[in-house]
Automatic annotation (TrEMBL):
Its EC number is 1.1.1.-. SUPFAM superfamilies: NAD(P)-binding Rossmann-fold domains. It comes from Metapseudomonas furukawaii. Signal peptide: none annotated. This is Oxidoreductase. It is an enzyme of class 1 (oxidoreductase). Pfam families: NAD_binding_10.
Amino acid sequence: MHLTPKHILLAGATGLTGEHLLDRLLNEPTVARVLAPTRRPLAEHPHLVNPVGALESLLPQLEGPVDVAFCCLGSTLRQAGSQEAFRAVDLELVLAFARRARELGARHFIVISALGANPASSIFYNKVKGEMETALKAMDWPQLTIARPSLLMGPRSEFRLGERLAEPFMRWVPGKYRGIEACRLARALWRLALEEEDGTRIIESDDLRRLGR
């Protein structure tokens, strides 16, 4: 069954994927309102509500209604500066955002996780992503969609040497390990938002690429 969500809540609108997703949402004729809290102001749009500040402080101020919530939050260990700071964003802030989205009436929560997410992983990044997925499942969402992209490709505001070096190779590796363009991921996320399927869905990177064509 296909839905037509009108009221959207978006976290991470200034990130690589979030920017593409925001642009798509604001150009969808069926979307009446996009609530996108950010640290820096976004360009004005008649359908955009843009509280400015730290997300953790803005959460209590957000107002509904909300049909679908997208979570594009994510950092790297290098960006965060420590494992504790990384966990604060990629686990704790994601869960706080999800709880607030549920309070505002969201039925469907769509979150960007990562390829290889596993709470039992020996890799810290994958372990935290897996813990985040497990905690979201425990919230008993009517509809939870977990997207697990491989390396995200596209121009970033900050320089990431490792990703820049890996990107040419990741365009050619097979299956779900192949990198995915952020614009394609954003298209896939929106298409997933239009589908009504109760319970939890985990969408791996190869399926995300297909959906985002």
